[in-house]
Design the sequence.
């Protein structure tokens, strides 16, 4: 099981859910991207659909779909979780991410830098608007909703 987490939205430093992730990470993480599409939910948090959108990073035939070139990219950071708190961290984040509309679930993704990491994928139920550049931070700034830092 990986001890990496790819965050792209409100779990990033300075945003409203960073305080849930911060106690479980070893450092400030590294900038990275994942294949997929990022959306504005209209609820002040984003939604991601990854090129590979299954819990184990494969399609229904077992083929790795993270390398699909038809998707855009989602901008985020990869964080290493404190190993002896990994299970606690993932359980807490599952609870936090599952508490909002959108049926978010934890999936494995391969980032463009080659990291295999957990991420939270959108499941459905909301009206979504694509974020063309794939960056929640840039999008919030463009809308005048600056990060909380």
Sequence:
């Amino acid at each position: 099981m990986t001890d990496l987490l790819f965050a792209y939205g409100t779990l990033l430093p300075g945003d409203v859910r960073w305080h849930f992730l911060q106690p479980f990470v070893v450092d400030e993480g590294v900038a990275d991207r994942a294949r997929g599409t990022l959306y504005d939910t209209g609820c002040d948090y984003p939604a991601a659909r990854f090129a590979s959108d299954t819990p184990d990073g494969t399609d229904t035939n077992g083929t790795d779909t993270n390398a699909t070139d038809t998707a855009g990219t989602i901008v985020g950071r990869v964080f290493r979780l404190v190993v002896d708190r990994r299970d606690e961290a993932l359980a807490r984040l599952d609870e936090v991410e599952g508490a909002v509309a959108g049926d978010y679930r934890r999936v494995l993704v391969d980032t463009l830098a080659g990291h295999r990491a957990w991420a939270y994928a959108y499941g459905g139920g909301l009206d979504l608007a694509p974020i063309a550049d794939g960056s929640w931070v840039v999008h919030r700034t463009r809308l005048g909703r600056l990060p909380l830092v």
Notes: The helical segments are 18-21, 86-97, 136-142. Residues 57-70 have pLDDT under 50 and may be disordered. Residues 19 and 145 are 19 Å apart (CA to CA).
